From TrEMBL:
<dbReference type="Pfam" id="PF01906">
    <property type="entry name" value="YbjQ_1"/>
</dbReference>
<dbReference type="InterPro" id="IPR002765">
    <property type="entry name" value="UPF0145_YbjQ-like"/>
</dbReference>
<dbReference type="InterPro" id="IPR035439">
    <property type="entry name" value="UPF0145_dom_sf"/>
</dbReference>
<protein>
    <recommendedName>
        <fullName>UPF0145 protein EDM57_05525</fullName>
    </recommendedName>
</protein>
<comment type="similarity">
    <text>Belongs to the UPF0145 family.</text>
</comment>
Length: 105
């Protein structure tokens, strides 16, 4: 599946727009990660526990978006974006874009 942040894909033309596709994941940080992150925030630097958590969440959201686009009959996603938010100790990541059918020009 082609996934791009642009409106068009060089060398392809959009022949059908299937609609909005998205993948959503909500993850909770564990108490162990919170303790380690709290200690690291005192001395400064990267908080690796949260970096890993966010990287994994983004990968899962992207995979879910692609699965959704496949189910819609698309072979590409254009205008792909990530968004995120938090609620208490939970983090939300959503991957979204427009599912389309493309063919080489």
């Amino acid at each position: 599946m082609l996934v791009v942040t642009t409106e068009n894909i060089p060398g392809y033309r959009i022949v059908e727009v299937k609609g909005t596709t998205f993948g959503l994941i909500v993850r909770a940080r564990g108490i162990g990660g919170d303790i380690m992150a709290g200690l690291r925030s005192v001395v400064g630097g990267e908080i690796k526990e949260y970096t890993v958590l966010l990287e994994d969440a983004r990968k899962q959201a992207l995979d879910r978006m692609i699965k959704n686009a496949n189910a819609m009959g698309a072979n590409a996603v254009v205008m792909f974006r990530f968004d995120s938010g938090s609620m208490g100790n939970m983090g939300e990541v959503v991957a979204y874009g427009t599912a389309v059918v493309v063919e080489p020009v």
